[in-house]
Design goal:
- By secondary structure, the protein is of the alpha+beta class.
- The protein has a domain at about 260-345.
- Helix content is about 45%, strand content about 5%.
- Strands 4-5-6-7 form a 4-stranded antiparallel β-sheet, with no helix packed on it.
- The longest helix has 26 residues, at about 125-150.
- The protein is globular, with a radius of gyration of 22 Å.
Length: about 475
């Protein structure tokens, strides 16, 4: 009998959020012989796949921290993440291991859905939607992996044996991983539902595809994918900007990670980011906003303007200026504003939202054709919501591809601050500059050079492969420089 060899798989698949779907006696083990028999089983399996998005190594903590801490937007004195802040990660760093491990658990869950749900007797339309959702989730995990580690093992079947000859896969070249991501997202677009406020949809698949193609600098493909999202009238920019937070399936949201706010389904980020009170206790916080970022916006920018007093400090929309002492003084991220509830906040986490899609469209359209009214129309929707004047083709910012590129880079930084995208933007800017020297004013290499490493070391554009994985898989080779 084959069994799925994921740590604690019975609990992972049937426990947590998935346990609410099933009303049956626990099984001693999970296998194709006693599971994947009914529509309830299929629903439990896809719920388990979504559950992996809440893990420490995914959107429960580390993907956000990894996406912000090495960048120019955040800093810290907390020893748990100081290596990220100083860009001194190693093959043994906890975040390097956690993201790799938990992403593959999520992939394995999606693979189980894709292999066995097609055999389940259930309504065909819902079965197809589940398969589309699983394709998206697998693509999302692989996209996060390939951006951070480069070539990674491409596993497309669930792990059902402990045989090293089967489970010890070599690294697949990055271009082949990207090709599979794009293929999965095309299938997700074909199969996923058009509307669902808390699950994967066709628009989520196309928004993620736009981000993938942006990373690959495939400008026409970005515009095409973004257009599919923008043609969906069910999405709109939240106004005012402050109403976006906390994330809770609002009109601007295309895909977000859901958190119930319970002990087994709460979001720990607010407790890691906010001062005490309301955080559980006082400690050095993650993702402290940098002075460089706080000084960047103009006074008119509502994303950073003074709103009033909250939590005993001053609310600046995207951050608060704490009024406490020690660890509870200074600026703190305020995009997860709900009380942390003992490391179990109900605040969701955005993965994809409409403003990001508008900015991706504007960036790709500018790279493809230079400043055009169509490009400015998309950018202006973000600017105007922020309280900034709409640009025209006569504006200095639209004088050339370069000047508009600078403006779009700035708006991405101000709009998406602290949401886990800045470091990934800086990584792709560095690779764009390798193709088009000087394209972006600030890239990951500029920050790498200012940290204790002291050089523009291109090896640090990738994470190392976790040492624990190399120890367990002789076919894995380490990235250069580690």
């Amino acid at each position: 009998m084959k069994k799925f060899l994921i740590p604690g798989f019975c609990a992972l698949l049937l426990g947590g959020a998935a346990c609410n779907v099933l009303d049956k006696e626990p099984l001693p083990s999970v296998s194709p012989n006693n599971f994947f028999k009914s529509a309830d089983d299929a629903e439990a399996a896809i719920t388990g796949a979504y559950d992996a998005l809440q893990f420490t190594g995914t959107y429960g903590q580390d993907l956000n921290v990894v996406g912000e801490m090495p960048s120019d937007d955040c800093t810290t004195t907390n020893g748990d993440v100081l290596g990220l802040d100083k860009i001194q990660w190693t093959p043994s760093s906890s975040q390097v291991y956690n993201v790799f491990r938990d992403s593959y658990i999520g992939i394995n869950r999606a693979n189980a859905v894709l292999k066995y749900v097609p055999t389940v007797s259930m309504p065909v339309a819902r079965r197809n939607e589940i398969l589309g959702e699983a394709r998206f989730l697998r693509a999302l995990h692989y996209f996060n992996l390939v951006k951070l580690y480069g070539a990674v093992p491409l596993r497309l079947e669930p792990t059902e044996t402990g045989d090293p000859a089967v489970i010890a896969l070599p690294r697949t070249p990055a271009d082949q991983v990207y090709a599979r991501i794009i293929e999965d997202l095309a299938q997700a677009d074909a199969l996923a539902p058009s509307q669902n406020p808390t699950r994967v949809t066709k628009s989520a698949a196309n928004a993620l595809l736009a981000r993938v193609q942006l990373t690959l600098r495939q400008w026409p493909a970005v515009v095409a994918a973004a257009n599919k999202v923008l043609s969906n009238s069910s999405y709109s920019l939240n106004a005012p900007f402050k109403s976006l937070y906390p994330a809770d399936n609002k009109p601007e949201s295309i895909f977000e990670v859901q958190f119930a706010g319970t002990a087994d389904g709460g979001n720990i980020l607010p407790d890691l980011l906010l001062p005490n009170p309301p955080a559980t206790y006082s400690f050095a916080k993650f993702n402290i906003p940098t002075a460089n970022l706080i000084a960047l916006p103009t006074p008119a920018d509502r994303r950073w303007a003074t709103i009033g007093t909250v939590l005993g400090g001053v609310d600046h929309a995207s951050y608060i200026q704490g009024s406490g002492s020690g660890n509870d003084s200074g600026p703190f991220v305020y995009k997860w504003p709900s009380n942390p509830n003992g490391f179990n906040s109900p605040d969701n986490t955005y993965v994809l939202r409409l403003a990001d899609v508008l900015l991706m469209y504007a960036e790709a359209a500018n790279e493809q054709s230079g400043p055009t009214q169509d490009c400015l129309d998309k950018l202006n929707r973000v600017r105007v919501r922020a309280g900034l004047a709409a640009l025209t083709l006569a504006s200095p910012e639209a004088a050339s591809t370069q000047t508009l590129r600078n403006e779009i880079d700035t708006q991405r930084r101000l709009e998406l601050a602290f949401e886990g995208e800045r470091w990934f933007d800086l990584l792709r800017y560095a690779r764009h500059n390798q193709v088009t020297p000087g394209a972006h004013a600030i890239t990951a290499l500029d920050l790498i050079a200012t940290r204790p490493n002291g050089a523009r070391d291109v090896n640090y554009l990738l994470f190392p492969i976790p040492q624990a994985e190399i120890n367990n898989n002789a076919q894995l080779q380490q990235n250069p420089g580690y």
